[in-house]
């Protein structure tokens, strides 16, 4: 098996949120794809945040593209030169006001959609979290914090009350560690 070759790459647009690039690619058998679009995004971080009382900290927010509200785990993107671990601790504190004295546990790094996107999501587990601050939201963030009993997560996923893939996958990645 051979790599695809990039014959040409041009940006359709560049923004602070992400870039859209249009490539011309040559496949291993010589076929040419004239318009292969790649979304360039920075990596994302997210975390299952578990309180001492065995509650999972979720955020509820409106997601414009889906035109609906979603219950999700706290998430965001690192600021310039910020380590992933520091980024998730900051995001959790800003979005929820929760912190922990324990180090985040790295659950894994996963490509979001390697067919068309360049970024990964880096997933953590934060245990023994407690509320210590008020939210510090960006001007475009409108987030409600919800505490969900650990034992209710499976049912909420099965019934579609939680239907955001990164939240579901992070929960399943953390299940063995949540019950310890």
UniProtKB/TrEMBL annotation:
PROSITE patterns in alphabetical order: NUDIX, NUDIX_BOX
Keywords for the protein's UniProt record, in alphabetical order: Hydrolase
GO cellular component, one term: cytosol
GO biological process, one term: nucleoside phosphate metabolic process
Keyword Hydrolase tagged: yes
InterPro entries assigned: NUDIX_hydrolase-like_dom_sf (IPR015797), NUDIX_hydrolase_CS (IPR020084), NUDIX_hydrolase_dom (IPR000086)
Molecular functions per Gene Ontology: hydrolase activity
Listed name of the protein: NUDIX hydrolase
């Amino acid at each position: 098996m051979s790599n695809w070759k990039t014959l040409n790459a041009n940006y359709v647009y560049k923004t602070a949120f992400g870039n859209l690039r249009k490539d011309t690619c040559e496949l291993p058998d010589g076929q040419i794809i004239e318009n292969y679009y790649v979304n360039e995004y920075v990596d994302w971080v997210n975390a299952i945040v578990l309180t001492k009382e065995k509650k999972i900290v979720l955020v509820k927010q409106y997601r414009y593209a889906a035109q609906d509200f979603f219950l999700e785990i706290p998430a965001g993107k690192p600021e310039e030169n910020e380590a992933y671990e520091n980024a998730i601790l900051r995001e959790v504190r800003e979005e929820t006001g929760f912190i922990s004295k324990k180090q985040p546990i790295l659950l894994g790094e996963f490509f979001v959609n390697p067919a068309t996107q360049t970024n990964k999501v880096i997933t953590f587990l934060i245990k023994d979290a407690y509320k210590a601050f008020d939210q510090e939201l960006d001007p475009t963030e409108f987030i409600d914090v919800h505490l969900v009993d650990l034992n209710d997560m499976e049912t909420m996923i099965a019934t579609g009350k939680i239907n955001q893939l990164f939240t579901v996958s992070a929960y399943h990645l953390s299940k063995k560690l949540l019950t310890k």
